[in-house]
Amino acid sequence: MKKLGTDYDGESQHSEKDDKTTVRRRRPTRPRPTTTSTQTVVPHVTCTDRMEVNYPYLVYLEGLPDEPVCGGTLVSPWHVLTTAYCTTRMTEIMVTVTAYNRHHANASLVYIHPDFDPYTLTADISIVILRDPLNVTRYAQLPDIISSPIDDNFTTKALACVVVARRRLTPYHYIPVNVMYGLKACRESFDSEIQTTVSKTWREFICGMPNSRLGNDIGDPLICDGLQYGIISHTYRTKMQTTKIGNIDHQVRFLIVDYHRQWINNVIAVDYRFGTNDGRPHAFPGLAINLILQLLTIVFQLLLRYR
């Protein structure tokens, strides 16, 4: 089975390598300096917009030098929403706010969706727990965008949205994009095996109409009407590349945030339940309890021995 994914420069990749997936991981970190839809007109957004006002919750995640740099969003002072594709490839994670003088914090724990499949990239969602809070004026708002069952013959009309991204040493950039949802919303892949995967997993993804500026912005949010509808998950090459010499056409797929809303809410609720009074979540509350019990057992055994 071919693995559907996107490497760091935006090219599609296929690999047979196994990726171990866990629901919960400790990350040791260290501080470091329709097919028949009508396109809508997307208004041009200029760099004169005040980033700290419009998108104060934007962050990017960095690992080691040979690991990916991915986008993400703050959904609370302690929680970052991004893709599992990114966090499963990082051994260290530092999260930096793109506004507010680039404040940053290291990750103490990573939650990976238990249904994440590194081959099909379903459930490609992850929540990073921060060691210290990143306080901003506003956090990402998640909408309810799918309220009823949708059959296989349904495709929404194009919706005008924007992807906002920024990385270390690069300016903000806005990428206007029209998105659609449905079985036939994405362009067909030139690879039959990938197309089979796309057809089977369409319910979890919004499709961005092909845009040459998208590709290496994995983890960045899809913003529509001020709300985060999705996360850039991956791209794949479409059949269009065979008809246009020198112009490789990529289809972008956004993971639908609302599709995994219950999991997001559960993760945040669990962390706050086991947190301290100041709201900081413990990395492994159960581990601390177990250590205390073990120490008490040892002390009790020593007392019995020397009575």
Provide a concise account of the structure shown:
The protein is an alpha+beta fold. 17% of the residues lie in helices and 26% in strands.
Rg, alpha carbons? 21 Å
CATH topology of the domain at 158-258: Thrombin, subunit H
Extended strand count: 15
Q: Which descriptor suits the 3D outline?
A: globular
Give the end-to-end Cα distance, rounded to a whole number of Å: 65 Å
* Overall residue-averaged pLDDT value: 73
Percent strand = 25-35%
What is the chain-wise order of helices and strands?
A: EEEHEEEHEEEEEHEEEEHH
Q: Give the C-level CATH assignment of the domain at 158-258.
A: Mainly Beta
Give an account of the 3D structure.
Keywords: Disulfide bond, Hydrolase, Membrane, Protease, Serine protease, Transmembrane, Transmembrane helix. Residues 41-269 form the Peptidase S1 domain. Residues 1-40 are annotated as: Disordered. This protein has 307 residues and is α+β, with helices and mostly antiparallel strands. Among the domains are: 47-139, Trypsin-like serine proteases (Thrombin, subunit H), CATH 2.40.10.10; 158-258, Thrombin, subunit H. Helices cover 17% and strands 26% of the residues. The protein has helices at 51-54, 84-87, 192-200, 261-273, 285-305; strands spanning 5-6, 12-13, 24-25, 58-62, 69-74, 79-82, 94-97, 104-112, 126-130, 159-165, 173-180, 205-208, 221-224, 227-237, 250-256. A 6-stranded antiparallel β-barrel has the order 4-5-6-9-8-7. A 6-stranded antiparallel barrel has the order 10-11-12-15-14-13.
